[in-house]
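Annex B. Sample input.
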Amino acid sequence: PVNMKAGYNFRVNNLPTDSTYTITETTLPPGFHFNKAALSITDGTGKDSTFKAGKTSTGTIESTNTEYTVTYTNVYELVDVTVKKVWADSSDLNGIRPDELELTLNGLPDDVDAPEPEITGADTNTWTYTWKDLPKYDNDTEITYTVSENSVPTGYEVSGSPANSGGTITNTLSTGNLKITKEITGLPDGAVPEDL
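Annex B, continued. Sample output.
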């Protein structure tokens, strides 16, 4: 394999004819994906018919004194990932909602650190978390990012975790039923007040 930087050329001279050759672009850095390959053939006898350009370019050299040039174009793309964090707790009725909550971004390529998310709406019932400028591709495969809440605050139940970009994670206040029984003793039969 040959590692090449953008704008670099790699040239091989004096290859024998009637042999098949293959050029393949393999691993791409995070954020890049294959866009196109262009093939140009220069010789004095016309274009060889077998060479085709693509992520893998292959063909048989048919003519002597022929120059084949394959140009690869890769595109670098970034994306933002946004999720909403909804608090279903009647605007913090019980006063137990935390002041901050950590969400985890999943799907980052190896050796890429997650940036700190931007958080808006923290004084409302809907917080918005946005991670900006993330690689869209990892080795030419589009990344599916998810966001998860790994530590649920005491007194809440979580739903919607993990969430895809554009999704919602909801924390709902845990509630229960309370049964109260009143027992009156020491009164004569039929002497229970009517307002009890």
